[in-house]
Write a structure and sequence with these properties.
Number of helices: 10
CATH superfamily of one domain: Cytochrome c-like domain
Helix content: 40-55%
Distance between the termini: 83 Å
CATH class of one domain: Mainly Alpha
Number of strands: 4
CATH topology of one domain: Cytochrome Bc1 Complex, Chain D, domain 2
Bound molecules: heme C
Radius of gyration: 24 Å
Strand order of the largest sheet: 1-4
Strand content: 5-15%
Structural class: mainly alpha
Largest sheet: 2 strands, antiparallel
Shape: globular
Order of helices and strands: HHHHHHEEEEHHHH
């Protein structure tokens, strides 16, 4: 190590001496190789194994297969991908994980009014990885087309906001798929009066 440092220092001196000289080719090649190795996964972040291991924190409530518990813990399988596809969904998922969530929500026609704990004790890598894990789902389909894996620096950028779970609720995307809304609006008016 010491030798390498000395060698680099010597190189710098040489480079400094002929100011226009490019860095040693060997050094540049080594840096390229490392960068390539890091970029194995899409987006350069290898989240699969970390996402799966981090999910042990979630499975007690959302269940190992992500199906949740009706009325108590919302499903994540399929649903997390829906959220991710909505306007603001990507950002919302990061906020839910970091700061938790409270208040009434509806998922697949079932209402939930519980408390999602904040996971800001997990580091940026673990949070990004577990979100990618739930968005990819449990059927080996992988991430939805066009969904770039969440990166640790996106989590880092939001962490300092320190929102409350109520404030996270305000960020929850309401945009159920535009088509579904249109269908509901087209539905004929109910003729019978209740009671
Ligand atoms: C102690 C039980 C519990 C644990 C553990 C837990 N959650 Fe939750 N989670 C909930 C509850 C309850 C809600 C719904 C909150 C509400 O009703 O407002 C929720 C909501 C969510 C939502 C938002 C769903 C939506 O439709 O807005 C996501 C995403 C989520 N959890 C992911 C996770 C992940 C990932 C983990 C593990 C890191 C995890 N949860 C751990 C109980 C839990």
């Amino acid at each position: 190590m010491r030798k390498i440092l000395l060698a680099s220092a010597a190189l710098l001196l040489v480079a400094g001496a002929n100011a226009q000289e490019t860095p040693a080719p060997e050094a540049a090649a080594a840096a390229d190789a490392t960068a390539e190795a890091d970029a194995t996964a899409a987006g350069g972040f290898d989240w699969e194994a970390l996402g799966e291991s981090t999910y042990v924190n979630c499975s007690g409530c959302h269940q190992p297969d992500g199906t949740g518990v009706p009325g108590a813990f919302p499903p994540l399988a399929g649903h997390a991908a829906e959220l991710a596809a909505m306007d603001g969904g990507r950002d919302y998922l990061i906020h839910v994980l970091l700061f938790g969530l409270t208040g009434e929500i509806e998922v697949n026609g079932m209402s939930y009014n519980g408390m999602m704990p904040a996971w800001n004790s997990l580091d940026d890598d673990a949070i990004a990885a577990v979100i990618n894990h739930i968005v990819a789902g449990w059927d080996d389909a992988g991430l939805p087309d066009g969904f770039m894996p969440i990166q640790p620096d996106e989590v880092a950028a939001v962490r300092a906001e320190a929102l409350s779970p109520d404030e996270v609720m305000a960020l929850r995307p309401t945009g159920e798929a535009a088509d579904a809304d249109a269908d509901a609006a087209d539905a004929p008016e109910a003729t019978a009066t209740p009671g």
